[in-house]
Write a structure and sequence with these properties.
The protein contains five helices and two strands. By secondary structure, it is mainly α. It has one domain: Winged helix-like DNA-binding domain superfamily/Winged helix DNA-binding domain (Arc Repressor Mutant, subunit A, Orthogonal Bundle). Strands 1-2 form a two-stranded antiparallel sheet. β1 and β2 form a beta hairpin.
């Protein structure tokens, strides 16, 4: 078996790690559905804590997938939106999401679909 010597592998693995983190997919989906302010994300993503939501938004911003804009009003407003790279990632993930839906929901640790 040959070793993989591809310079893109570490970068791709980093991307997979980022999008595989808990709540990242939900944050991206909320952005696609129109969330712009922190409270809108929180309202759309049931179960996420403020701390974790803040962390995921920061990670996506650092990765260049979400843009954070500060509006100097009283009180200060912070808005988020997908960058072109973020939208491109969401578009690239759509076939994977569709594939997953065709497979049906499967419990973790089993190789078969749940009984109907």
């Amino acid at each position: 078996m040959d070793a993989i010597h591809d310079d893109t592998c570490p970068s791709f693995e980093g991307t997979l790690e980022l999008i595989g983190r808990r709540w990242t997919g939900s944050v991206l989906q909320a952005a696609v559905q129109g969330a712009r302010r922190f409270g809108e994300y929180r309202a759309m993503i049931t179960g996420v804590s403020d701390r974790l939501l803040s962390r995921r938004l920061k990670e996506l911003e650092t990765a260049g997938l979400v843009e954070r804009t500060v509006i100097p009003t009283t009180p200060v407003q912070i808005r988020y939106r997908l960058t072109p790279d973020g939208q491109e990632l969401v578009d690239a993930l759509q076939p994977l999401a569709q594939w997953n839906m065709r497979r049906g929901v499967r419990p973790r640790g089993t190789g078969r679909a749940p009984a109907a």
